[in-house]
Amino acid sequence: MPLIVCFFTCILLYGLSHFIERSFEKYSVAQNIAELHSVIESIEREISYYDPQEDRENLIQNILLILASHNRLLVCIVDEQNNILYKTRGPNLLLTRNKLNYHSIISKQKTAIWNYNHHSYRVAASDFLTLKGKKYTTFIAIERDYQIEFINRLHDGLILLIFIACLLTLFGTLLTIYITQKPINRLIKIIESVNSKSLNYRIPINTVPVKYISLIKAFNNMLSRMEFVFQRQSNFTADIAHEMRTPITNLTTQTQIALNNARTTSEYKEVLYSHLEEFERLSQTITDMLFLAHADNKLLKPELSDIDIVKMFTAMFDYFEFIAEEKNIKLELKGHCHLMQGDKLMINRAIGNLLSNAIEHTPIDGTITVNVNQINQKTIKIVIANPGKEINKKHLPHLFDRFYRIDESRHRNGQGAGIGLAIVKSIVEAHNGTITVESDKASTRFTMIFPISQIKISKFYQTKK
């Protein structure tokens, strides 16, 4: 970066110095040309007033007066026979006749450069007829040495200025980068010190420059998300280990007891049936975890077909009828809707989990109500409400988390693994739907909203396949 800035600074200053040098040179040339032509006009005017033959002395005096206000000028006036009327001291301008194209200079009123005896001159010339018709030629030159020397000094000065400016730019850029980078380096050290044990650390915003506040806010937000995911993963690992340990411990204990004493065939069968239940519990837990793992990686692929939600709930009511009768719980279905597209097995599993959860938390003689409504031509709404104890609002956002329980005790007391609602949420989101929960003293309500058409989802999965 410093080298790039220095490079462009050099280019800019060089271009500016070249412009200044050329501008001054053009100005000097224009001044010389104007001065030469002005003196020529003045001399010709004097010759028109005074006859060179009859009033030579007055003419010479006036020419001297004209030249007195002009320094470094050489003048030579000759007639047609090259007789010199007037000549200043210094180089003989008649020598330039063989060096320069005077016909072009005179006809086009231009000037030319004459280098003589280590000096440089700008030369002009003019032909003039007197009133008596006699022709005179005026040669005039101005010395350029002073201007050339000044331009060379200007050039050297500008080159030195460019060199100094580039050095200052380089050091200034390095210093600016160092000062600017200093807080960044400090932040880098702080960021490098963050590890899995310090994810709760947040960089104070008031300790960083204003221009980095948005960056620090983004980093702190990232730490918050990482801390949440890390904590969730840690809890998940602990919970899944506990879920696996419980059936394995039961299997180990039952096996040890069965081996300590001789058993009858029927007793061994009873132990094996008990083992089978534990194995089924382990298998179901593993299956559920694989399902959620697929959901986390966006690998759930609904097999789309038309679903009659009302018929699905009716069939599900028949399935849970015997379980509900044990607590004298009634199941009511209200409303109607159009057919929707979705995966029948997934939707059926989600509905089954919600109804099972509702029956488990509904008191004896309660009524579970399912409302199916057509919101519009594209959306349906399903509300499953069950009476029971109000759930504290602080628990509601976490009900769909894996292994989350309102009762923080790890003892399940015969309940499921605590991932049923997490599976429900994964299924709903796989169908581009949403699920929310509300709870008050009257009831707890799970609300699912599904799009009727899943054309976009279908096309997406067909493309993936």
Automatic annotation (TrEMBL):
<keyword id="KW-0812">Transmembrane</keyword>
<dbReference type="Pfam" id="PF02518">
    <property type="entry name" value="HATPase_c"/>
</dbReference>
<keyword id="KW-0547">Nucleotide-binding</keyword>
<dbReference type="InterPro" id="IPR003594">
    <property type="entry name" value="HATPase_dom"/>
</dbReference>
<keyword id="KW-0997">Cell inner membrane</keyword>
<dbReference type="Pfam" id="PF21085">
    <property type="entry name" value="CusS"/>
</dbReference>
<keyword id="KW-0902">Two-component regulatory system</keyword>
<keyword id="KW-0597">Phosphoprotein</keyword>
<dbReference type="InterPro" id="IPR050428">
    <property type="entry name" value="TCS_sensor_his_kinase"/>
</dbReference>
<comment type="function">
    <text>Member of a two-component regulatory system.</text>
</comment>
<protein>
    <recommendedName>
        <fullName>Sensor protein</fullName>
        <ecNumber>2.7.13.3</ecNumber>
    </recommendedName>
</protein>
<dbReference type="InterPro" id="IPR036097">
    <property type="entry name" value="HisK_dim/P_sf"/>
</dbReference>
<keyword id="KW-0472">Membrane</keyword>
<keyword id="KW-0808">Transferase</keyword>
<dbReference type="InterPro" id="IPR005467">
    <property type="entry name" value="His_kinase_dom"/>
</dbReference>
<feature type="domain" description="Histidine kinase">
    <location>
        <begin position="239"/>
        <end position="454"/>
    </location>
</feature>
<dbReference type="InterPro" id="IPR003661">
    <property type="entry name" value="HisK_dim/P_dom"/>
</dbReference>
<feature type="transmembrane region" description="Helical">
    <location>
        <begin position="158"/>
        <end position="179"/>
    </location>
</feature>
<keyword id="KW-0067">ATP-binding</keyword>
<dbReference type="InterPro" id="IPR004358">
    <property type="entry name" value="Sig_transdc_His_kin-like_C"/>
</dbReference>
<keyword id="KW-1133">Transmembrane helix</keyword>
<keyword id="KW-1003">Cell membrane</keyword>
<dbReference type="InterPro" id="IPR036890">
    <property type="entry name" value="HATPase_C_sf"/>
</dbReference>
<dbReference type="InterPro" id="IPR006290">
    <property type="entry name" value="CztS_silS_copS"/>
</dbReference>
<dbReference type="Pfam" id="PF00512">
    <property type="entry name" value="HisKA"/>
</dbReference>
<dbReference type="InterPro" id="IPR048590">
    <property type="entry name" value="CusS-like_sensor"/>
</dbReference>
<dbReference type="GO" id="GO:0004673">
    <property type="term" value="F:protein histidine kinase activity"/>
</dbReference>
<keyword id="KW-0418">Kinase</keyword>
